[in-house]
Amino acid sequence: MTVLLPRDKNASRNIKPEKSLSGLTSADVNLNKPRDINQPSILSSDKKINDKVKKVFIKTYGCQMNVYDSERMVDVLSPIGYAAVETPENADLVILNTCHIREKAAEKVYSELGRIRQLKKKVNPEMKVAVAGCVAQAEGSEIKRRAPVVDMVLGPQTYHKLPEMIAKVHRNSGEVLETDFDTLEKFDNLPESRQVKGFSSFLTIQEGCDKFCTFCVVPYTRGAEVSRPVGQIINEARNLASQGVREITLIGQNVDAYSIMGPNSKQWGLGELISHVALIGGIDRLRFTTSHPRDMDDDLISILGKEPKLMPYLHLPIQAGSDKVLKAMNRGHTYEEYKTLIVKIRKSRPDIALSGDFIVGFPGETESDFQQTMKCVEEIGYASSFSFKYSVRPGTPGASLPQQVSEDVKSDRLKRLQDLLYSQQLAFNESLVGRTLNVLIENVGREENQLFGRSPYLQGTHFNGPADLIGQIRPVLITKAGRNSLSGELMQK
Ligand code: SAH
Ligand code: SF4
Ligand code: F3S
After folding, report:
1. What is the CA radius of gyration of the chain?
2. What atom of ligand 3 comes closest to residue 100's alpha carbon?
3. Which domains are assigned to the chain?
4. Distances (CA, A) of 280 to 232, 276, 472
């Protein structure tokens, strides 16, 4: 049984003022796709693997924050001789970086642990196994009880301690369980150097959540909202630029709640931070995610319209269109307030493409409430979206609400909602045919002579061209659009 530990709602925003913006730090990884949090991902490193190098296999579930964390785990492990490998068979260490957001996400971890147990028994008895991330935080020592193959359990704010934990496992000295919540201590102790692959990278600037939506585990698994000091972020961004990264996505569970005493002794929000990251040479594109409607302030909205490096794409979840459901979810705003916000955002940045998250079948949601969600989608218009059936999370307030909605009704509503959202997504992509868009070229495509990149609106874009253009931003005339991608022709600069 999952137990979500109660959290002190006031234990947030441990803000440190800081002085210097100078100095180089490190760099990160390649995050060049919008994240489908239902699909796990695997990391690999360029480090030459020989007998002396220890191998770590990391499988990442969940959101962008976990992707960033997995890359940083490699940075933490690299100085003690580890390199990331793509398969678990011969790994010295297997880490599952887990997600607890929906029941299915959490259950996947246990089936994967079953496979790892077999592998350890049959192929590699010396293998050590760690469960990191949000399931680790939520379930703690319960994981070892259900899956004795696990050697270490570590929450999202503790992975800077991995070397200590590994040493403890090898000494066989007791239970290795770390579930502290000291986010700033983690960032202060991460290695400055990051191993970057590719041209687009995530950079965590904020972690945690104080919103306590009644359906959601994140406030319990990630802890309180904490913002990273400006200097650390600027250093990391500079270092990314020095390694060839052209696009940075600033990430946080509530990225627009970013708030910290800046180097000029004034309080900085996300808008101010973006204007400074945008000054870094070599960084040509900026994005940020995920924003909460309650935290989109006027400064950020105005920067959206003014900063040319900011891409015209905004992920702003609403979850549901009915005020009754929004209230039961504890979202802290009404549909009208969201709509007014969107009008303001579109006034500031008329070409913005909107994306959202939706939940159907929250307890008490009637057909007429659901119709409000459909109306919201029709009125707002989304270029992309993520939509889910409500999943009961034990320990959250939503789990004990009466009037849970049946699985059949949830499936039916999800289907109708997705039909609408997907038709909007296709229509948006089709509206781009005939336009020339700047594409950040990230890789070769599947076909011969084909390149793959991302448009300003984040769609994957395919076109023919020479591989030496990888890493460049080039104009592409869009000639064809599907729901999930675009294709086109490379134009002269
Ligand atoms: N901080 C972001 C969301 C992070 S979680 C925000 O507030 O918008 C990503 C998405 O997962 C959420 O937006 C929500 O749509 C979905 N989600 C979270 N908990 C869920 C649950 N119990 N059941 C179904 N979907 C859920
Ligand atoms: Fe979860 Fe709500 Fe926090 Fe988003 S704002 S992470 S949905 S509690
Ligand atoms: Fe999942 Fe944790 Fe992210 S629950 S969505 S990995 S914050």
Report:
1. 22
2. 4
3. 41-180 (3.40.50.12160), 436-490 (2.40.50.140)
4. 14, 7, 17
What burial class does residue 55 get, using C-beta atoms within 10 Å of its C-beta: 0-12 exposed, 13-18 middle, 19+ buried? buried
- Which is nearest to 254 in space by CA: 314, 197, 295, 304? 295
Q: 100: CA distance to ligand 3 center in Å? A: 6
Q: Is 116 in the pocket of ligand 3 (CB under 6 A)?
A: no
Cα–Cα distance for residue pair 271/145, rounded to 1 Å: 46
Q: Which ligand sits closest to the CA of 320?
A: 1
Q: Please, what's the b/e burial string for 94-130 (b: 16 or more CB within 10 A of its CB; e: otherwise)?
A: bbbbbbbbbeebbebbbebbeebbebbeeebeebbbb
Closest ligand 1 atom to the C-alpha of 393?
Answer: 22
User: What is the maximum span of the chain, computed from C-alpha positions, in angstroms?
Assistant: 65
CA of 221 to the centre of ligand 3 (A): 8
Task: Verify whether ligand 2 is closer than 6 Å to residue 292 (CB atom).
Answer: yes
What pLDDT shows up at residue 192?
A: 79
Ligand 1 geometric centre to CA of 218 (Å): 8
> Do residues 178 and 144 lie in contact, with contact meaning Cβ atoms separated by under 8 Å?
no
CA distance 206 to 240: 18
Closest approach atom of ligand 3 to CA 37:
5
Mean pLDDT on 234-263: 96
- Do residues 37 and 63 make contact, with C-beta atoms less than 8 angstroms apart? yes
Distance 98 CA to ligand 3 centre (A): 7
Reported residue count of the chain is: 493
At 92, the amino acid letter reads: D
Q: What is the DSSP string of 263-326?
A: TTSSEEEHHHHHHHHTTSTT--EEEEE---GGG--HHHHHHHHH-TTB-SEEE---B-S-HHHH
**Which protein residues are within 6 Å of ligand 1, measured from CB?**
101-102, 215-216, 218, 253-254, 290, 292, 317, 319, 357, 359, 388, 390-391, 393
CA 265, CA 387: separation in Å to the nearest integer? 41
Where helices occur in 381-469 by DSSP H, the ranges are 407-430
Q: Is the C-beta atom of 63 inside 6 A of ligand 3?
A: yes
Q: For residue range 402-456, list pLDDT tens digits in order.
A: 999 999 999 999 999 999 999 999 999 999 999 999 999 999 999 999 999 999 9
Prediction pTM value = 0.92
CA distance linking residue 62 with residue 56, whole number of Å: 19
CB 295 within 8 A of CB 254: yes
